[in-house]
Amino acid sequence: MAHTKFKGLGIALVTPFKEDESVDFEAMGRLLDYQIQNGVDYIVALGTTAETPTLSEEEKREVREFILSKVNGRVPIVLGVGGNNTKGIVETLKKDKMEGIDAILSVVPYYNKPSQEGIFQHYSAIAEASKVPVILYNVPGRTGVNMTAETTLRLARQYDNIVAIKEASGNIVQMNDIIKNKPKDFMVISGDDGITYPLITMGAVGVISVIGNAFPKEFGKMVRLALQGDYQSAREIHHRFTELFDLLFVDGNPAGAKCMLSIMGYINNKLRLPLVPTRITTFEKIRGVLDSLNIKC
C-alpha cells in the first residue's frame, strides 16, 4: 500500500520560545495556520528542528497535544520518536496509543555508533512495536554513523510498516542506490532542502523541510512542479533559494530558520542552549536575501 500522505512537502516544525524560554504556543499556533493555509502536505512534530532534546517530557507532551488540537485533522502529523536506547523506545511505542499520529520518524541511533547489524535490529524492534507506519531517518552528520543503502533496503523489504526513509546523508550515490532498488511502495524523502530538487528528479517523493517553515507556498510549489515533471519551472524556484539554503545552516539548525521567521514576524529569535541565534552577519545576510525575494520584513 502506498502511503501517499507522506508525499510532497512535510514541515520539520520549529518550537517557538518566549523571551523567558518557555514554549510560545500562541506563536506555534500562528505558524501552524500559516503552514496549512499555504498548502503543506504534512507536519513533522518534535523532530531535530524542534530542538526536542532541550524540551522536558512534560513540554514534549504539551507540544504534541497542542499540535494535534490545532491541526485538527487538516493535514497528517508525523511524530519524532527516536533515540539511542532501543528498549526505551520500544516501551514508549507499546504504551503510546498514537491517537491522531499518522507515522513516526525515527532517527538512526546516535553516539553509540552501532554496526549495520545493530541498526537493523534497532529498527526491527521499532517496526514490531509501532502501531503506525515508520519513517527511517538517516542523518550521519548528526548521529555519527551512516545507515547504508544495503541496511535501508533490507529493512524496507522485511517490514511492510517501514514505509519511507528521510535521507540526509548527502550521498547522492547512496540515495540513488536506494531509489533504484527499493520495493515499489517504499518512499525516499529528502532530508536536505538544498538537494530536494535533484533528488526528486531521481525518484524521491518530496522533502521534510526546514526552509518550508518560512516559505511553505513557494517551496511547496517547487516540490509539486518537480513531482509533476515540470523540471524547468521547479529548477527556477530552486535556484531562487540557493543562497538561503546555505545561510539556513551556516550557524546550525534551527538557528537559520528561527532567524528567518523572526524577521518575518512569526516568532521570537530565541533558542535554548546549547544552541544560540545566528551571528549578526548571518542575520543581516538573511535579511538581505529576504528583501531580494520581496518578503516583507
Helices, strands, pairings?
Layout: E1 8-12, H1 25-37, E2 42-45, H2 57-71, E3 77-80, H3 86-95, E4 103-107, H4 116-129, E5 134-138, H5 140-143, H6 149-158, E6 162-167, H7 172-181, E7 187-190, H8 196-202, E8 206-209, H9 216-227, H10 231-240, H11 242-249, H12 255-263, H13 280-292
Helix pairs in contact: 1-2, 3-4, 4-6, 6-7, 8-9, 9-10, 11-13, 12-13
Description of the molecule:
With 297 residues, this protein is an alpha/beta fold. The protein is 45% helix and 12% strand. It is built from 13 helices and eight strands. Strands 7-6-5-4-3-2-1-8 form an eight-stranded parallel sheet. Helix 1 links the parallel strand 1 and strand 2 (42-45).
Give a brief outline of the structure.
With 297 residues, this protein is α/β, with parallel strands linked by helices.
Number of helices in the DSSP assignment: 13
CA-atom Rg in angstroms = 18 Å
Helix-strand pattern, N to C?
EHEHEHEHEHHEHEHEHHHHH
Major beta sheet summary: 8 strands, parallel
Mean pLDDT, all residues: 96
- How many β-strands, per DSSP? 8
Share of helical residues: 40-55%
Strand order of the largest sheet: 7-6-5-4-3-2-1-8
Write down the overall geometry.
globular
Pairing-aware structural class of the strands and helices? Answer: alpha/beta
**Termini distance?**
44 Å
**What percentage of amino acids are in beta strands?**
5-15%
Detail the poorly predicted runs. none
